[in-house]
Amino acid sequence: MDANDRQNEILSLLTQQDRVEVEDLSRRFGVSLQTVRTDLRDLSQRGQLSRVHGGAVRIASAANQGYADRRSLNATGKRAMAALAAEVIPENSSLALNIGTSTEQVARALAGHKGLTVLSNNINIINMMMGMETKELILVGGSIRQSDGAIVGEEAVEFINRYKVDCAVIGASALDEDGAILDHDAREVSVARAILRNARTRILVCDGSKFTRSAPVRICAVSELDYVITDRPVPLAFAEAAAAAGTKILVAESAIETESDPT
Fold it and tell me: Which secondary structure element, helix H or strand E, spans residue 104, and what is its range?
């Protein structure tokens, strides 16, 4: 089987499953690991798949999926993570939340908190929190991305730079085992970085499926966060990078219990 046939077979496999592994492909085709990595690199450069640690994933995924559709993905896990984040965030504090379906769940989970000052570039969050017992709601100024209600761009960054909040809560599109926190849109990443830079406590809320996804733009490293809140145990390398930096990883156990319950 030549390279063209192998690569077509890899793409065919990715129409049936979300991810392929280098070692599995090596055994399947009877070629070296390096040959498989070369095939994946070529396909990635042509935009036909996304490379991740140990393999590759379907290009689909988060970048092209509708925002409304993403709200329903792993809804149970997101609610459990959000409840855990709400325990970390004290009442009578200020916080900033960026765009994302996980951060929206955190906003919902804060319904019982009193005296919050909330800054967000997410129109959905501001609308959702109107009527809650918040002290003040601040909508970031700038250009609105109509696909999801995010306010992005340099105006948004300049707006956020005028504030210093107690807690930053961000989501991400992908996580790398080496500790990189990643996203697809450089404008969105600039806003997330500004939110982190202008906060005393920095919290990432991100489910474990993001370790199987790839995104090209680095938000930060796990070492730059105070908390990572997720719904399942993280890979060892990521846990070690967090431990070395003193970053706390909190796992929403109720999400694990719900997913493993056969009923």
Answer: helix 101-109
